[in-house]
Write a structure and sequence with these properties.
single chain; 97 residues; mainly alpha; 4 helices
Length: 97
């Protein structure tokens, strides 16, 4: 399998996963909730873009194309603060006598 064929496969798989992540924004029938998959689509898209010399400067844009990864990047600072504020290192124990 040549480099261009591998790049096409990686970009296709990454594009499919990214599209499925974006489709989670559309409300599902029956009120069911669908969650996104972070990193998978962006990794495939970025690897495929790195293999194509013309797309190499834009490989970073894979983070913007995949909603699951984009959402994780935006929400990560809040998650880190919450994790730190509830960790064993920072929470004082309350003893009731």
């Amino acid at each position: 399998m040549g480099t261009s064929a591998l790049a096409k496969v990686l970009i296709s798989v990454g594009g499919f996963v990214a599209l499925m992540n974006w489709l989670t924004l559309v409300p599902l029938r029956g009120g069911r909730h669908a969650s996104t998959v972070p990193f998978i689509g962006a990794i495939f898209l970025a690897l495929g873009a790195v293999l194509v010399p013309a797309l190499r400067p834009y490989a970073w844009a894979a983070v913007l194309m995949d909603y699951g990864t984009l959402l994780f990047v935006v929400k990560f600072p809040g998650l880190a603060v919450e994790l730190w504020s509830t960790s064993r290192f920072t929470v004082l124990a309350e003893y009731a006598g």
